[in-house]
Amino acid sequence: MRADGRFKFSSMSRRAAVTGAALAAMAVLAGCSGSTAGNPADGDMAKGAPEGAKVTVIEYASVTCGACAAWQSQVWPEFKTKYVDTNQVRFVFREFPTPPQPVAVAGFLMARCAGPENYFPVVEELLASQAEMFGPAGPRPLLLRVANGVGLSEEQFQACVTDEAAIAAMDERIKAAMDAGVSGTPTFIVNGQTVPDNSLSGLSAAIDAALAEG
């Protein structure tokens, strides 16, 4: 661990760095349209109804995105109770790291290293802990604490966030999202259609209409 609490991503691939630079130049507060983003993709993390469900809701988000954290705390609990816990929809979470990209990438890589059963708890804890993440101590103590909580040692954490193959796979997922027209977080897509209104009522209008279709 460095004395200044910062990360050293010496193994980050050039491709990942290029993607990070591209993302940094893009707007990161509002989503945009792009129906192809609704297609199944490698690396999707999902809960609720199984693949092939009548309604699929996709969220593109980042653990460093304040608007994503607000949605998680204000909308997600009721959304989950209404649609996910009842298996009315398949909820898919896709990673779209926003500034500071190295922190977001590290959080997502660590969540994947924690295993499928821990992926969502890790992401949700990071979203809920952004005040600590951006506090005086920097993000590393938080990420290490969360990593330790799911059984990862500091050595395993460091190996995880510098894994070239994992970084390259994330880079491919990010570029696929960009190619599909996603430019900001959080972006929500219901059955292939971007829903600009991310409130519960806005998402419910799109979901309920899709559920009612014959």
Automatic annotation (TrEMBL):
The keyword Transmembrane helix does not apply. The keyword Ribonucleoprotein does not apply. Residues 1-30 form the signal peptide. Pfam families: Thioredoxin_4. It comes from the Bacteria. Residues 17-212 form the Thioredoxin domain. Keywords: Signal. Belongs to the thioredoxin family. DsbA subfamily. May be required for disulfide bond formation in some proteins. This is Thioredoxin domain-containing protein.
